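Lay summary. Proteins are chains of building blocks that fold into shapes, and those shapes determine what they do. In this project we predict the shape from the chain. Here is one chain we studied, written as its sequence of building blocks.
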Amino acid sequence: MNLNIELKNSRLEQAAVEARRGEAQQALAKLFSGQLDFTGWVKDPLRYDEAKIKALTDTAAEIRAKCDYFIVLGVGGSFMGAKAVIDMLPEEDGTKVLFAGYNFSGRYLKELMKTIEGREIAICVISKSGSTTETLSAYGIFKEIMLEKYGKEETAKRTYVVTETRSNYLFDQASEEGCTIFDLAVDIGGRYSVLTPVGLLPIAVAGIDIGAMLRGAAALASQETFAGTGLDYAITRQLLSGQGKKTEIFEFFDPYLAYFGEWLKQLFGESEGKDGKGIFPVSLMFSRDLHSMGQFLQQGTPLFFETFLTVDEPADDVAIPDTAMPPFAGKTIQQINECAEKGVLDAHVAAGTPVVSIRVPRLDATTTGQLIYWFEMQCAVSGLLSGVDPFNQPGVEAYKKEMRGYINKL
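And here is the predicted shape, written in a compact code that computers can read:
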């Protein structure tokens, strides 16, 4: 495993963590047993043989050969994971992946329409239920654009759908029109679907090695990987919550991890926030947010703990010229960034804040696959330890019901 988990600054007694390892292992066994609904993701990376990977990469190559832009329409788990990975890892030159269908902003859609005007496009419509409001309203707009540009037959060839392969609005229409359909398995929820066609197709279109991602995840997909100390992060979260630390702040020192933070917020928030329970997830980007939130983190209400995610080897670096003012002259930006990280850690630990540190050697496809799977497993176990079902989201339906009522009155 390419991840280094450091819990020494969590301010917890080691004995307290050790006391809950048996319970955590029981939760892990439930996940691997298949007894729980929506746990298909647990063993899913092991099901991708070379033929399945090739089918996805060949489709991605086909899209790259004919498109300037690949527009992904989806909200929540239907787009966040893919965008997180594409932002984290360098895209190849060629087809650019754009995202829509995750807001109701007319201005955003108008600007996107200007971007693609006169260019070759294809769309990917992602909705587990086949009826997501944000996604299908955007789909109607972009489908009309494609029909005017390409006609009915070619539009179908340029439309890729990811949904449950059973009767729903999206699946039925796509089947009738002859669009390419990828199955979003019934037993995998949206926020745990990055390592399925939901995330893998857009990621492959961006030119990222999805085979390496899946192999990285598959290397962790066993109970043995998480034996011993392997679930101590999940245990630590619950112990800190029991001490009143009801907010977890994910903190990054690399701006390209910003959307990974957004994915983590959905993963943990939607998995744990129910039955009056849950740790509220927040993400901050350093050093930018030190100039807005640093004061609160140092001396504000002590209701939080911090989880640092840092990268040892940056994708690139820039030297500061000798003509710069001291003490920066002759250093590199990454060296200054590492000083910021160490300074923040020391200051916050001294202030009494519990801090968890997660380090990765570099951001590549293999490590990214591991990082995604590792966080999914920790989140699922953490939710089970808190006594909630990490795989449902009954509260989400409340606002959807009210929203549909207003839409129907328009």
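What the prediction tells us: Residues 133-157 form the longest helix (25 residues).
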